[in-house]
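User: I'm writing a tutorial on reading structure tokens. Could you give me a worked example: one chain, its sequence, then its tokens, then a sentence or two explaining what the tokens reveal?
Assistant: Sure. Here is the example chain.
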Amino acid sequence: MTKITDVARHAGVSPSTVSYVLSGKRSISEGTRLRVQESIRLLGYRPHAGARALASNRSNVLALVIPLRTGIHVPVVMQFAVSVVLAARRHDHDVLLLTQEEGEDGLRRVADSALVDALVVMDVELHDARVPMLRSLDRPSVLIGFPADAAGLTCIDLDFTAAGEVCVEHLAGLGHRCVGLVGSPPEVYARETGFAQRTEDGFTAAARRYGVTSTVHPCQPTAEAAREMAARLLREHPNLTAVVVHNEPIVEPLVDAFQRSGLRVPDDLSVVAICPDELAERAALPLTSVTIPAEELGKRAVELLMAKLDGHEVPAATLLPPRLTPRASTARGRNYA
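And here are its predicted structure tokens:
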């Protein structure tokens, strides 16, 4: 392993000079600085994490607050977490995981202890109790999600309102006149989680705009609940010709339940899912879907944090436009003229 003394010997300077070049704490002539940097590059020297932290007054650690509670689909949460970790490592930072249950106390604990330089916060509620504290912390933060009042915060997310709208737009364009939204579990709506509420708002607004009859049903994330939901929808809405599913665990069980009831997908019933592309592509019947861009959201959240740590101005709000990919699960409605 290359040491600082090896760099000093190669550059023809003292180890302290190498240290000053790395930390920037003393003025070094341009020629010497360039010579040291070239030796660092040629020898592949990487400063010890502790030394970097002392030199920069940073911990080189980000906190990621992830939701591990009822109603949340853990595999998708892990896609976000992996994306944040990989992006952080590209910026030479590690990641400390906090769970949603730690709430305000967890945020205060890591901020007061100087364990982390900055925070990424997920599973944002419209009236999130953590928001006042995030505004008051002396650590920068980025929220993956939007509270109702985002003033003074940096937020990024998929535009879930537009996602709900584009699903209805696609189905209305195919001639469907009665569509249903099978949404997140009831507790997610009860907590007023932003992504669920905004998807419903976009869905119902677009249905009104296109003159489409719509219905919204939260659903527990189990195969049994999916079967019960399929039966209920067909019983209560006999004219139903299309369904939008925003609940990853029940996407395939719900399609299967409809098919077992005698409906052909997509000939009798079209299905659109709001989910990661991998789930839609690998389903037994490839699903038309609006993707959840977990990788891009995690990466861009970290980039926003890095910019804030370096003192740069960043956009207060970043909304990624939804991308709908037609596949085999949607077709013209039965009454299409």
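What the tokens reveal: The radius of gyration is 25 Å. The domain at 4-56 is CATH 1.10.260.40 (434 Repressor (Amino-terminal Domain)).
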